[in-house]
Protein 1
Amino acid sequence: MPLEIVMSVSFARAGLILGLGLTVASGACAPLRSHQGYIIDADLVNSVQPGVDNRQSVAQVLGRPTIASQFGAEDWYYVARDSRNLNFQKPKPKEQITLKISFDPSGTVKSVTRTGVEQIAKVDTFGKTTPTLGKKRGFFEDLFGNIGTVGAAGAGGPGGGGGGGRDTP
């Protein structure tokens, strides 16, 4: 093969590899988007009317709730959240809609309330360990702390009076 063809093929291969590498690298930095929960249709939500609808009609229109209250008031919650994150970071909520439908004791819709992302509580953890009250033990105390406790009086082992064996004369 002539030298010009070999050079053009090698440049084409290098360009292809470089192009694929840039495509993969740029895709790795793209934000990941996710949706969790209920898919809210505004027309269906607006059709639920307090004093008119009941549990059965709400279930037919909106489907089963994301969360239903277990104690006290009869409330159904429909939650939808859109999150974004880059690479391996924790997802951050960008939008959230929580639809709360309250029922009276007879099962009729009492109220429909909508809240957004402002209701999300951010909980910061306290380090990687849970603080406890009491003595703090070190590595060697954890490792060797039980030496001498096996077979102690009342422990049930040999010499501990636990009656583990028969008396022989």
Protein 2
Amino acid sequence: MTNHAILDQTVHQDLRVRVDAGADLGDGVMATLTVPSEFRNIQGHFPILFRREAGQDQFFAVALLGFESGENLFLDGARWDAGYRPLSLAIQPFLVGRPAGGDGPAQVHVDLAHPRIASGDEGVRLFDTAGLATPYLEEIAGKLGDLDLGYRQSAAFFDALAAHELLEPFTLEVTLDDGSVNSLVGFHIINEPKLRALDAAAVGKLHEDGHLMPIFMALASLSQIRPLVDRKNRRRRHG
């Protein structure tokens, strides 16, 4: 259940938001949305995989955080155990909205039903006593803008991948130290042999359009699968 509203300095003068980590605060997810412009920051911590919803043609990218539904191996109680927090998690409970017609400037919306909405004196204020945005809200607005721009630019990236048939299905079976098996299905990755086979003109166009770097970042991120498995094994051993 959601309750979205345009953020208003008068109506929401005293609104506070919890900024700690926690499964009950929306962080208990196996994967979270990311965008090509964020891949450089993501790839040093999380595997980047691609998927599409059933019946849909358009792909989107996710940062993989675990191997089972609701599992985030970077959550250690109320501590975020990674050097980077994906934008799609960092901006909660805020989102970008636009006027009903779809035109006009972006607006900051807040989900008033989100578990990060604080009660009493908990959390961080959004506005100071003069009604001005706090440094926290200014930081959130910047992250919202980055994520929104990255999302709107991502269609061209995925069109380029489709044009060169650079995505291939990816299935992973992970055998853990205790003998249990975790399977990842329904994801795609960059097809490296096809990428290597592209001629100079195609590679040049990908570079010119700004798509080559995120492709390389996505490929590099796959080296994070092994550390993610190690996290899973440690979680199993220590509970």
Protein 3
Amino acid sequence: MVFEYILKKNGLDPSTDLTIDQSISFGLTAAAFTSSDADYTIEFEPFATTLELEGNGSVVASLGTESGYVPYTAYSARKSYIKQHPEVIQSFTNAIQRGLDYVNSHSSEEIAKTISPQFKETPLDKLTQIVERYKAQDTWKEDTVFEESSFELLERILEEAGQLKETVPYKELVTTEFSTKAVK
């Protein structure tokens, strides 16, 4: 949906100007790209960097950079849960904020070493390169505050993709109370 939004934003019609094959399983798109006649693929890391390092492709753009801050990761809880367990929500938000503080204050090498146990199949030098790309693209925000402009961008993308029939007011779905406290 984000890719199609970016195409439209740049004057291309995804239904007439190109062919998008969405039949390929998410984890197999890089392999399919190298063995087919496709001109482009959309990849998350570490697959994008792997394609480059193997000489099978080049990263030409970042969907995140081209789209603006789309909240790819957002956490949801029932209002009743938030009301009954605010300390759990605050602790969780504080932990995410500490993670953002860490990635925004440490080098790519330090971050790569820290996260390497979670990516055992990815060599440290490649992981460092991936983190550096994320830093250069300004992937990590400074805080966990879900801004209204990002919410509206997400709604616009969902609407254009035919996945959202009507918008919902930001204040009805989003609370920044815990994020604001976590920043302090």
